[in-house]
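Budget justification, computational time. The allocation requested in the original proposal was used primarily to generate structure tokens for proteins on the priority list. As evidence of use, we reproduce two of the resulting records. The first is shown immediately below.
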Amino acid sequence: PQSFPTYDSRPAEGLSPTPPPRVVGVGLLLERNAAEANVARIVELVPGMSAAKSGQIELGDIVLAVDGFAIGDLDLQEVKHLLKGKEGSVCLLRCLRGNTPFVVELKRCQPPANYY
């Protein structure tokens, strides 16, 4: 009979397990309406998070792309997934204000403790 080695799942002595990276966002809330089905409009900025702190994003701005992915045909859950990532990672938003396109680079971070 063949024997297989056994593995101890406990961490090695003196080492602690590495927690998984936190998945966080940039602090904005998007909305779509029936009249603008393919438009993701910013309706809220979370105080203390990178979207609000950047000073570059305003309520009513339209998000066109997240990290190079056009979001016009994505549902809001898919867009939310693109906005989230490892804490400290960079999120690149291509937006539109009126007829003026612009790009914003934001760092993903934890929401303030008093947000919830």
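The second record produced under the same allocation is shown here.
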Amino acid sequence: MSTSVSTIDSGDTAWMLTSTALVLFMTPGLAFFYGGLVHRKSVLTIIMQCVISMGTTSLIWFIIGFSLAFGESGGGFIGNPKSYPLFDHLDLTTPTGYPMSAPGTIPGLLFAAYQMMFAIISPALITGAFADRVTFPAYLIFISLWLVLVYCPFVHWIWNPEGFLGKWGVKDFAGGIVVHISAGFAALASVFVVGSRKYKSEEERLILQVPHNRTFVALGTGMLWFGWFGFNGGSAVASNGQAVFAMVNSCIACSTAMTLWTIIEWVSTSKPSLVGACVGAIAGLATITPCAGFVRPWAALVVGVVAALFCYGCVKFCRDMMKWDDALDVWAVHGMGGFIGAILLGILADEGIGGVPRSGKFLGKQIAACFGCAAYSFIVSFALLKLIDLVVPILPSDEMLEEGLDASMHGEHAYDEDAIKDLTERGSKKNSEAYVVPQNGNGHGNGYSNGYPPQVVIQPGGPEGQYTSQINYSLPPAPSVQESFPQDGFVGTA
């Protein structure tokens, strides 16, 4: 379907440009959300896994992914890779994509870019399940293959007008099946492949599973909530009434689930937690996603209630009953949230909102699609990880885990005090070298006279194997701070 310049609507185009940026903003939000929930020695690892998807996935989508998803259909199962390679033929061509009606009112290139943002965040969602347990090379291979073999087919089946599930009548407004079920059940498959995290003792397990930075979790939740307005609202592919319903419904479901989750946790543990409230909000957003533009606000309230009750129950089932080590509850919140949301659409859909009438027949199709897609994602993801492990080790070595994945895989520490501690511990071999601790900063506008933060130099020479740290400040007058660090920590005098 081609769109002439005269049919391009400036309002629709402006809204979709904004929505594209909002959805991209969600991936850094997810990085903060996940980063705050893991141990401090793994925070950069999981942030890197999210951030690298912004690069790797974008390239795959640009080269072949968009064609596989929205290209000329091959029997309703996959698109022709020759349709839009390198975004060719998209200057003023609006693809016949979901749920766009002819004639299209935004440039096809913009539609491809908007869909790219969905592709970026989908594999990043999986990372929370296998926190602390996957090497970076294996992860890169997995998300690249998963995008081609799982995500792109899902998009084609449901959102391409020639996809077999879409033609059958299955509906998914913004990705409850395409994004959340695909990622959630891939996450569950990864848990079965990599197994549970290993701890030396129950005390160590309790320490390492405590979120290291709840502030990051709250920040990430706010960024995700904000970006979700583009995720769901932009899925109308126009600046219209359906986009308004999608945005309002998203906020209502999110707020409801957050509040109810907090109450449930308050009653069951006697204290409401910030992390619980944030997880409840994400559960509400994931669950409303498939029906955001197809239901009325009162139905969004129902979805929020179900999201809190159902996803909270799935978390307890996964952790307490089955003992599955889904580190950050990806399956319970995203996988099962999208699952129950897509089913609720069959019960709550309003024909006057999005043209989708609720009926028993429609409900049956939604249920069948959810089970079928969940099974496909689980099986293919499981097989991919097993095959990758034959070529590239998936599990980090015990030595890497002992050192921490941030340091062992990426050579970095999230916090300078960890870098200092790591270097002082290495200094226990009593050689004559001095170590320079790299400090955070890029040399621009960080408040120091020459643009760089203080440099920390650790030298041998302290009593009884201690190392001396000299912190040199560049901002005059330069204070001199001396600290003596023992081999096993930061106890010293200042």
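A brief technical remark on that second record: The CA atoms of residues 314 and 460 lie 53 Å apart.
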